Amino acid sequence: MQSTSPEESVFGPPPQTLDMQYSLFKEMNMSAQSRIGASDWGHSYPAIFQLDLEIPAFFIPYRWWEDEATTVFWAFDIQEIKRVIQFGLFCDPNFPRSSLCTRNVDTIETFLSALSEPYESQLLGSLSHIQRVEEILRRSSISPFQEMPWSWLPPQSSPTLDARAIAAAIEAESHFQFRQIPFEEFVRAALGYNAVFVEWFLQQHAALYIMLQDHLGVYPEDIPLYTEVEKYLRSGSPFAHRALVKCLLAVRPGANHDLPQPNTAGFEFIAGPIQALFKDQPGRLTAMLKMLTVLTIRYRRQYIHTPIMDWQTPFDTSLPFLDDCLQSTSPKDLADSMRGLDEHQFAELTQQSLITEDFIVEQLKVQWRELSVSVWECCAALPDLIPYLQECTQFLLATRDYHSFTAIIKGLHIYTILTSRPGNIQGNPITLEALIPREIVSLMSPADNFAVYRQHYQNFPGIPWLVPHLRDHKENGEAVLQPVFHYLQST
User: Fold this and answer.
1) If one looks up domain 320-489 in CATH, what number appears?
2) Domains of the chain, residue spans
3) In 10 A of CB 257, how many CB atoms?
4) What pLDDT digit, counting tens, does each position of 340-362 carry?
5) pLDDT digits over 37-83, tens only?
6) Which of 212, 405, 458, 490 has the lowest tally of Cβ within 10 angstroms?
């Protein structure tokens, strides 16, 4: 999301919407293409990338989310309105602005106040109605598009060049270009809306194709080298790989029969799962936008903050924990649902499983970690969910479901760590103690292999949190597992 400094936007021109930026980008793009054709030694280059061919075909007879967006703009939940603006799932770029302008002054003032920090109240209080609408739009929209041109260039021809190193450099640049694309833009592209960030990404790979073809035209002795580079790129960026394949076919027509030419949509791995969400869950825009907001966190973790890009594995859009939260009627209902699932999973656990730490134990440990990460993702994306989870932990502890209880506490702990602020930044730091009562937090103290938790479990056995028990078993033998064995036998 964009910076919330009001001085940067309130007294300037209204912010451009992504659709306005897209129109400017298309004009710029067409102009640039005409210049290339006119000045590049008389050569013309085929358009090897087109957005509609890189996104799987998507057809749905009724775009239900557009109608539901209108309803959201007439409601009073600013967080839901913010998410509608953030993802921009509508054709008319002026739709959010015109909708907000029709709301009364007090409502818009309340909306902006909810999106602001207390120290901003004096400055924001002096704004006109239209300025407040523009500020809401700015704070709710993704950062404006900025050109980030392709920066890798073919190295000077030399017999000492290494094909693997060249492939790695091209892959790194392609991944860098991908990192510039917000998840919201992929959602828009997947549903057939304008997506300037995605278009720019494709244009940069078209530029790679042109540069490679020009280079090999000047240095044909490098063709064998780049033929080797192509082999290394097969497992990397499909866009960089295709640019090189098309280049090799152009400089040596008919001599590259063994070059693979995949005809699948390059963005299938990310756009396909997004499209499936909208096909499988019609008529739930507010819930859908919450899911997409959580998936934004996952997208950044999986594709942005990672040294190695996975261009093949479909993006995992499953959010079972969030689904349970959204479908539950109360924190107690959520706790009951989680306990029911845990009872089913732990029913397969035996004494021998614990002693040998077999596949069942490993699966439960993986499930615990996935749950804790999912809790963090949900809290980071939807902080309003935190009070709901706080109350849920109370019920989980009361029913002695330590497996889900500790996973939620761990997720909340991750959230507090990653949202902490340096002392010179305004705002109160969020601590785990501020979210969970101290006596509950103490159960998660790692001192002496979670001695407080293990002592509590001795007195109040239940569905165990396996990690401390397994470590205790390794250090002190089977006898320390008796409370867990006893619980398993009683269920």
Assistant:
1) 1.10.840.10
2) 47-140, 146-318, 320-489
3) 5
4) 999 999 998 988 999 999 999 99
5) 433 555 778 889 999 999 999 998 889 999 999 999 999 999 999 99
6) 490
